[in-house]
Hints:
mainly beta, Glycoprotein, Type 4 Pilin, CATH 2.40.50.100, 8-stranded antiparallel beta barrel, 4-stranded antiparallel β-sheet, 1 helix
Amino acid sequence: MRYFVSLGAREIVVDVTPLSSGGFDVCADGKPISVDVAPAGGALSILVDSRVIDIVLDGSSPRVTFASFGASGGAAVESDRSRSSAGSRGGPTARGQEFVVAPMPGRIVRVLVAPGAQVETGTPMIVIEAMKMENELRANHAGKVAEIIVHPGDAVDGGAKLIRLA
């Protein structure tokens, strides 16, 4: 399963495959990581590349908070499935901005909005071609187009930021 983890303005693409041993095959930003998880009271004990991390999570997708070794924070976590069902997504950043992101690798076919345009929930914003199919990504909330990051013809990776809404 693919997950998109937004920490402030940074988005990390995480691919997770359960293993028969009970562990997980994990790639974060394309880098393989050895991971095993075990419940530890109200926390999770995670073995990451021979290092143990105890973490407490609170909330539910897409908004979670975490605490580990005295550090704490918040993140937006979306699965590929939840993001696809929403049409176009991107977690809000600390500045209240939101990004329309590519749900999969592809090529930008058309940009349907202009900077400064006011959009309503469901407004078609951009068309991306992937696997010979065109996918229209829509606004998941009303807002103003602050920036168009890509142009028609651009090749993009899954999770790439395409349009910034304010």
